[in-house]
Amino acid sequence: MNDANYPWFILVPDRANITEIFQLDETEQKQLITESSLLSRILADRFNADKINIAALGNIVPQLHIHHIARYTTDAAWPAPVWGKLPARPYTDDEKNQVINRLQPGLGESFEYHC
Amino acid sequence: MNDANYPWFILVPDRANITEIFQLDETEQKQLITESSLLSRILADRFNADKINIAALGNIVPQLHIHHIARYTTDAAWPAPVWGKLPARPYTDDEKNQVINRLQPGLGESFEYHC
Description:
The structure is a homodimer of 115-residue chains. Helices cover 28% and strands 14% of the residues of chain A. Chain A has helices at 26-46, 93-103, and strands at residues 8-11, 51-56, 66-71. Chain A has a three-stranded antiparallel β-sheet with strand order 1-3-2, with helices on one face.
């Protein structure tokens, strides 16, 4: 997410025409929670998050996507959820590259990146 | 959740000292997404939801819990997430019993209810 207020990543399962997690089959659901937990653990460890917030909302963009947000007790929206709290602060190119370089190692080849 | 604005249920995995989904082991994670999807499907079908919102936040209450909210394009917070939007409207006893009776069939014996 192009919002430097928080390290905020959106996991988009590469499946067409899916809007709800329960529409994935059993194997796909297992893959989703495994990949979500890998991403979450990296956010907790490598970004020193105090809490990970995970959410599948999709009220506006229906294609299934799962928010993963590294939260800090010192961030500007804490302890509220992030939605609707602060205007997005776009990353500079340098900041964006730093975040991507911190994120990628260990995520493995099943992840593709779009930003 | 004692808030009649939306059918809103909180799934609490019966594990002590867990604050993040990634702290569950592989078998527990699989059980979580299976039970979450069963609950979500029942909300979608039996409560005629337009969208299911699922979230693991836990910024205030650390024990792992996952929100499951049946959303409607006609509900008062749509399309925003529900947090911080409306004051909770407590159920009457009749309303509460109706919701529980609508929810329970099909959820099976691995679920316990607290309200």
